Amino acid sequence: MHLPISPPTVNSPNDYVAEHVRSIPRSGIRDFFEIVQSMSGVISLGIGEPDFVTPWHIREAAIYALERGRTGYTSNLGLLRLREAITDYVAEHYSVRYTAATEVLVTVGVSEALDLALRAVLNPGDEVLYHEPCYVSYSPSIALAHGRAVAIGTREEDEFKLRPAALRAALTPKSKVLLLNFPTNPTGGVMTAAELEEIAAICRERNLLVITDEIYSELSYHEAHTSIASLPGMRERTIFLHGFSKAFAMTGFRIGYACAPAVLIDAMMRIHQYGILCAPIVSQEAALEALLRGRDDMQQMREKYRLRRNFLVHKFREMGLPCFEPRGAFYLFPSIKSTGKNSHDFAFGLLKQEQVAVVPGTAFGASGEGHVRCSYATAMEQLEIAVQRIARFIGR
Ligand SMILES: Cc1ncc(COP(=O)(O)O)c(C=O)c1O
């Protein structure tokens, strides 16, 4: 006998979409850049990717891999030779040694690595704390993993560092993960070893797991970069994420990696194994070439970014827009408060009147209000024209 069961209410296809997905807003950056793409003559300081093409020998390694018929799946964890090169690179540059066989997972960019890390560790309602303004995908990625995103505002007066007192104030019994990104997208803020040690002490005391997104770490312009994973007692409670997109100008190859204690990598690998299987083999071969022979290219690109950064900081200050000198990454995050406009109106006004695209600071969280993000992963000639147009816009 069939019991009468009332069907779920469906008034439109939107009712099929899961509630936690429905509540995620579309990226503010995407909407803005759809408008940019529909216009001509725009100078874009909006894109978060290197303007350099991937160095030739790295592209050649990808071509050569195809020529050799390297077209199949790899181990779920990634090519062992690549994982070995990653462990050597991480040991040399970040002073933490991982075991290639069990403690490294090659992923489809840091994006996938972050998603896996969150999904592997969060139970519904667990809180993930992160400093803000921050990369646009942190809050949605946490929500998609059924966690609760807890933003900790950082301030220009503090050079956009995460202050221990602010972290303590945000802690609750549900706090499980601290997500860090230094140098920071969009502010260019960094933390010194001593400052990170204060954060690490809280993590040890409160048993927090740290997920550290080190994607801009090679692009540090002043002090040597320190990873929180290298501090005493932190390796066992840290998932270290890194990739090739920014430092080696390899965004389209979609390669990243996670290093962590074996049980955490195993948990992430089980999700990766069913969802993705493995990162593309051609991209893995290219990444291996980047680690083995790409360091000079990286340094040359960093020097170009540094010159552009110096130029932009000087020009913005000259225009009367206060501007924190970014210590890393390739973004400037000037304050536009003195113009009397909010960051949305500033960015849209600048685009409409002067055809220069910058990203409203609020795209990176509420604490980004009063700022805009300008990427200097843009050719110097373009930057020179852009600053003239911005000066004219402000003068109006
Ligand atoms: C802080 C940060 N993390 C991760 C990513 C994504 O990197 P990937 O290309 O490796 O997925 C970006 C890209 O802009 C980023 O800014």
Describe the structure.
- The chain has 396 residues and is α/β, with parallel strands linked by helices.
- The protein has 2 domains: 13-53 and 296-395, Aspartate Aminotransferase, domain 1 (Alpha-Beta Complex), CATH 3.90.1150.10; 56-293, 3-Layer(aba) Sandwich (Aspartate Aminotransferase, domain 2).
- The protein has helices at residues 19-22, 28-37, 56-67, 80-94, 109-121, 138-144, 164-170, 193-205, 262-275, 281-293, 295-318, 343-354, 380-395; strands at 43-44, 104-107, 127-132, 148-153, 175-180, 209-213, 238-243, 256-259, 331-332, 356-357, 359-360, 372-375.
- The strands form 3 sheets. Strands 2-8-7-6-5-3-4 form a 7-stranded mixed beta sheet, with helices on both faces.
- The longest helix has 24 residues, at 295-318.
- The radius of gyration is 22 Å and the shape is globular.
- Bound molecules: pyridoxal-5'-phosphate.
- Pyridoxal-5'-phosphate (PLP) is lined by residues 48, 109-111, 135, 181, 185, 213, 215, 243, 245, 251, 256.
- Residues 48, 109-111, 135, 181, 185, 213, 215, 243, 245, 251, 256 line the site of pyridoxal-5'-phosphate.
The gist of it:
This protein has 396 residues and is an alpha/beta fold. The protein has helices spanning 19-22, 28-37, 56-67, 80-94, 109-121, 138-144, 164-170, 193-205, 262-275, 281-293, 295-318, 343-354, 380-395; strands at 43-44, 104-107, 127-132, 148-153, 175-180, 209-213, 238-243, 256-259, 331-332, 356-357, 359-360, 372-375.
